[in-house]
Structure prediction request, 277 residues.
Amino acid sequence: MSSAYLPGTQIEIVNEVERGRFKHALFDFDGTVSLLREGWQLVMGPLMVELICGDTAATPEIEEEVREYIEDSTGIQTILQMEHLVELVKKYGKVPADRVLDAQGYKDIYNARLMVRVNERIQRLESGALSPEEVTLKGALGFLERLSRHDLGMYIFSGTDRDDVRNEARLVGAAPYFTEIWGALRTFKEYNKEMVIKDIMREHQLQGGEVLIVGDGPVEIRNAKENGCVSIGVASNEIEGYGWNEEKRERLIKAGADIMIPDFGEAAALDAYLFPA
Prediction:
């Protein structure tokens, strides 16, 4: 597969797509817009290994399997990741059966650990020690403002719990741009990203080329591909807040992204490409 960059930019065109017809845009949130949860993988990975191994030492095999799973599952609901963790705990058999928790039990442990660092950032944001621009991907808020001028229905659909993503979207200044903010409910059947895409397309009688999907996870990019939507893969370096994460880039292209960007620092050029005069 060959791709090209828009002249003078880092906007990578992987697949030529029909442009200018978009009526609805769906955004992943964490890693795509918000950086409040940057480092979640560094919490989930060691925790999964710890819970799989119990009182025994970690092995390279387990560490690698966990790493690969987290990379591939970025974007899905946390409860599904925890369901997979239950399977891994049982598969390796290092934890006595009476100490194996269900998915919700493991999710509670994970959320408690993750929210220590998230709440610290929220406190700094609320105190003014951090600005909204410092806890969002470069240019993200500006790009949302530009898109809002096109009379689009704009939505967040996140794997983070609904109450949390709504609160965090408000805190970083993104909430006013969105018609609706969806996040995970207790079960996959109640809410998932593919369900949201299909519901919007059915309710508004849309063709795939009228729906734009933007995200940094393979899950939403694959969902976009399977439903004929146009997708922007955001290969974000969440630590720096700008620039390419090459591992993400490779995963998102493999998942079927049509357009690749490292961040929204070239929002004007991206907007002009999506909505040609």
Observations:
- Residues 16 and 258 are 7 Å apart (CA to CA).
- DSSP finds ten helices and eight strands in the chain.
